[in-house]
Specification:
The complex is a heterotrimer of chains A (330), B (396) and C (189). In chain B, 42% of the residues lie in helices and 19% in strands. Chain B is an alpha/beta fold. Chain C has helices spanning 14-27, 77-80, 106-109, 121-129, 135-146, 151-161, 164-188; strands at residues 2-9, 31-36, 46-54, 69-72, 91-96, 114-119. In chain C, helix 1 (14-27) crosses helix 6, helix 4 runs antiparallel to helix 7 (164-188) and helix 5 (135-146) runs antiparallel to helix 6. Classes of the chains: A alpha/beta (330), B alpha/beta (396), C alpha/beta (189). The interface between A and B is large, with 47 and 43 residues.
């Protein structure tokens, strides 16, 4: 991994970390000359994980490409809250077409640049989990298969948030959504569902696949920058909690992302050509319950009584991830 | 250069002569030979500075085209029937974003039931989407319309569908003159987009437009489509000036002077109708043909002028609106309003059923005497129909 | 206008035959329109292709209902479908077969007076080409029987279409077919 591990994580590596690093190793956000790709004025909710993730990711991509970047966006929260005509909070060349075609549109942009002999300008595509794992899945797989030169970033808040919190193919087990309500014999999203896109991306043997969260923003930046040193299809899957959809306090967004990683429910790793090469170790393991309790989309697991069966099942999933991705420090 | 070549190959060579920068297509009968031809030209280096993308669906094809065109690349794709329907969301997106993509529609029937043969139901289903629709009478016109299409599209910032009858034109070998790249370059300048994705001058394309502005955006597109009618003729005239032949344009009339009956049609059937009209005129009948090249935008005024003086117009259509009747008829009726012309519609050739000279002669002989229904399905197998209908009635 | 209908089975190059004929006609400065009829594509299924030949621009596109000439690439079709439908009186029929007219039951099926040629095109193809593909070969016979297009034009079209080795074999076979039919016509005269 290309970041310097600093143990002062409570405050974040920005206040203390940047002073201890060489200039070229410092966070993009510490640079007053940064692009501010997603600038202020957009209409995202208070505590939106996606707005935070997108700004960090695109600023990092702009720095990595010397500002030679075109961004393609799928329909979703990010696109809706950022471009209420006649305003736009994007400070990069930006195209939004449809819900299910961001990967294909990005392929088209990359093809046009290649046909024109432009080898400098790079392409980033971004979409939510719905656009990525469901409606845009075919297009994404096609892009991977052709190894088109695009970095695709999925901001995963685990449901169709912009349309009112409906279940997507990425909605985790037992979560309450508007179409998997907390009612009946099996409240919430049923087990055995869910596409894990990072592994599917790896199955295409593309040059780079990584996961990240907004709890470790320096890591997110580093992964974007690393991805931009490569050519071909690259995939970054970023966990971005959604206070509205997850039923969490807007001040807990980063904390919840951290609990997702520290419980093992969301493994953070990198893969090159389909093989895992590095993973972020869990500093202090927590039980999944710590993570679940902060979100009312899981409140049916605790009230009227604790649903031991489901919680234990979720714990087993987390433990399996820890084992599979070697998330514990030896 | 004059060559005896398959229609699809002619179109591929014509498109290549237009120096496209991105070609993206998904195979579907009967368009396959066009994209195969282009793929070979790119692969063997004949067509340079062009990326050919093998996409995983028609939806991807139009989407790749959108990305490429928005980046300022001259972009081309082709499809038919089910493929056109599969990409419809993106088709509307392309016209909504004002991207001058050129697409061949190798006209084929829409299923179910599945049918791979020619009719116009596919392009007709997209008559409202904001793309121009130009129909080729023969393979020469198919070649010429593609060249004209890039220019019309880029000057108007409106995408263009060039419609050519699947199999009947795409798979027919006939004589065509295919201009060279140099000849086309003199007629078609390089693509200079109104706006495009450029890090040096970043813009946001595809914003969300609310109730307060949506109507105006749509009205402007409507107005631009109407304005493109003039452009269609202008480009056809300039094409004639460059290449010495009259192709494209809004419509053409054949032996309509003083004709009491005028048959109106789109696409390859116009050729057959010209032969039928010649025969009928020899027998002393007063009948002519108008071939419509531009269906969208619809040439209301020019059509009214072309039909003025006739007693009746027969509209031959290769598609229809289920439960309602003719589609082109609806626009024709508007064009002839107040002119005292009767209209008759004949639906023919659905799902690739051959339209024979004999059938046309018989139908038109009756139509000239107005002894046909307002709406006829040509060569309908009435025995089978009657049997089926009485079966259904018995069940209800 | 001279209208030709070609019958064969999928995989025998029926469409290519129509294409070659059209190119041969074009090379002699006339207009030609060739197109297949499109049944479900499947090797072995009956396939029909058409070619219209004219001094003038050809505008009509209906299937050829009243051919002036028929080329039957696969004689087994005679018993299976009405290959002779609409054939004009005085028309030309070329059949690829080693059997004679009686054994092929042609007299029964053929309702009008025609000029007929039967030749072992597949065998000629095997001899000169090494493959049982009779399509180009039969065009040599067509040229000899009808005179509508010259043998030279047919061989030019073959050379334009195929790679040198395959073209050479087809040219040889087509020429042999031409001579075979010319001899047959002479001996019948």
């Amino acid at each position: 991994m290309s970041t310097t591990q600093i143990k002062f994580y409570q405050v974040g590596s920005f206040a203390v970390g940047n002073r201890l690093l060489r200039e070229d190793e410092r966070s993009v956000q510490s640079d007053p000359e940064r692009t501010n790709a997603l600038t202020s004025g957009h209409r995202a909710c208070q505590g939106c994980g996606e707005a935070l993730g997108a700004r960090y990711a695109l600023d990092a991509a702009m720095r990595a490409t010397n500002d030679q970047l075109i961004a393609v966006n799928a329909t979703g929260c990010l696109e809706v809250f950022s471009t209420p005509y006649p305003e736009s909070s994007w400070r990069v060349a930006w195209l939004h077409s449809l819900f299910g075609n961001a990967p294909a549109v990005a392929t088209g942009v990359a093809a046009a640049l290649k046909a024109k002999g432009n080898h400098t300008t790079r392409v980033v595509a971004q979409g939510g989990d719905g656009a990525t794992v469901d409606i845009g899945f075919g297009a994404l797989s096609g892009m991977f298969e052709r190894n088109d030169d695009v970095l695709y970033i999925c901001y995963d808040n685990e449901a169709y948030m912009n349309t009112g919190v409906q279940r997507s193919g990425a909605t985790p087990p037992a979560a309450r959504t508007a179409t998997t309500q907390a009612v009946g014999a099996k409240p919430g999203n049923v087990f055995g569902q869910g596409k894990y896109l990072p592994k599917i991306a790896m199955a295409h043997d593309i040059p780079y696949v990584a996961t990240a969260t907004i709890a470790d923003l320096r890591d997110l930046e580093a992964k974007v920058e690393r991805a931009m040193t490569m050519h071909g299809s690259r995939y970054l899957h970023v966990l971005v909690p959604c206070p509205l959809g997850w039923g969490s306090a807007s001040c807990d967004t980063i904390k919840i992302a951290r609990l997702a990683t520290q419980s093992g429910l969301f493994p953070v790793f990198e893969a090159i050509n389909g093989e895992v090469v590095a993973s972020s170790k869990i500093r202090k393991k927590v039980d999944v319950e710590e993570y679940l309790k902060l979100q009312t989309r899981y409140s049916h697991l605790f009230s009227p009584q604790r649903n031991d069966e489901v919680i234990d099942h979720l714990q087993r999933i987390a433990d399996k991830n820890i084992e599979r991705y070697e998330l514990m420090e030896d | 250069m004059l060559r005896q070549v398959e229609g699809s190959k002619a179109v591929a060579d014509a498109v290549a002569a237009c120096s496209p920068e991105v070609i993206c297509a998904y195979p579907i009968s009967p368009q396959t030979h066009i994209v195969e031809g282009l793929s070979a030209l790119v692969k063997d280096g004949t067509l340079k500075n062009c990326e050919f993308i093998n996409v995983e669906s028609e939806f991807a094809a139009m989407s790749v085209a959108i990305g490429a065109s928005a980046t300022g690349a001259r972009t081309y794709t082709a499809t038919a029937s089910q493929g056109l329907l599969y990409m419809v969301e993106a088709v509307y997106n392309a016209s909504g974003l004002g991207l001058p993509i050129v697409m061949t529609v190798a006209n084929r029937a829409i299923g179910g039931p599945i049918n791979i043969w020619n009719d116009h139901s596919d392009s007709m289903s997209q008559r409202d989407c904001g793309w121009l629709q130009l129909y080729a009478e023969n393979n020469q016109e198919a070649v010429d319309l593609h060249i004209q299409a890039f220019r019309i599209a880029e000057e108007m910032s409106i995408p263009v569908m060039v419609c050519m009858d699947g199999f009947i034109l795409t798979h027919a070998y006939e004589q065509v003159d295919i201009p060279t790249r140099e000849e086309v370059e003199a007629f078609l300048p390089p693509f200079t987009p109104r706006q495009h994705l450029d890090p040096a001058d970043p813009v946001s394309i595809g914003a969300m437009v609310g109730p307060e502005s949506f109507t105006e955006v749509k009205y402007l597109a409507h107005q631009r489509m109407i304005d493109s009618l003039r452009k269609v003729q202008e480009v056809a005239d300039d094409f004639e000036h460059h290449f010495g032949r009259k192709t494209g344009g809004q419509l053409r009339a054949y032996r309509t002077e003083g004709a009491d009956t005028i048959v109106l049609a789109l696409g390859s059937i116009i050729g057959t109708l010209k032969d039928v009209v010649d025969e009928l005129q020899l027998d002393g009948h007063s009948i002519g043909v108008v071939g419509l090249t531009s269906f969208r935008p619809f040439p209301f005024h020019a059509l009214g002028e072309a039909l003025k003086g006739a007693k009746r117009v027969v509209i031959l259509e290769k598609a229809f609106s289920t439960g309602t009747g003719g589609i082109v008829t609806q626009d024709v009726v508007r064009a002839i309003e107040g002119l005292g012309i009767k209209d008759f519609t004949v639906i023919a050739g659905l799902g690739g059923r051959p339209i024979t000279i004999a059938s046309l002669r018989e139908y038109l002989t009756n139509a000239m005497q107005e002894s046909v229904e307002r709406l006829t399905f040509l060569d309908l197998e009435t025995e089978t129909i009657e049997k089926e209908l009485s079966k259904e009635r018995a069940l209800r | 206008m001279f209208q030709v209908r070609i019958h064969g089975r999928g995989g025998q190059g029926v469409v290519t035959a129509a294409e070659l004929l059209a190119v041969a006609v074009f090379d002699e400065g006339k207009h030609a329109q060739a197109f297949p009829s499109f049944g479900s594509e499947r090797t072995g299924a009956p396939v029909v292709a058409y070619c219209r030949i004219s001094e003038h621009e050809i505008r009509a596109r209906e299937p050829i209902m009243e051919p002036d000439a028929l080329i039957i690439q696969d004689a087994s079709l005679i018993k299976q479908i009405d290959v002779f439908a609409g054939l004009k009186p005085g028309g030309f029929v070329i059949v690829n077969s080693t059997e004679n007219a009686d054994d092929l039951l042609i007299a029964e099926k053929l309702k009008v007076a025609t000029t007929l040629a039967i030749l072992p095109a597949t065998e000629l193809a095997m001899t000169h080409l090494g493959r049982p593909v009779p399509n180009a070969v039969l065009l040599g016979a067509f040229s000899a029987l009808t005179g509508v297009v010259s043998l030279e034009a047919v061989t030019d079209a073959i050379n334009e279409k195929f790679k040198p080795k395959v073209a050479a074999g087809n040219v040889a076979a087509a020429t042999a077919a031409y001579e075979y039919v010319m001899n047959q016509v002479a001996s019948n005269a």
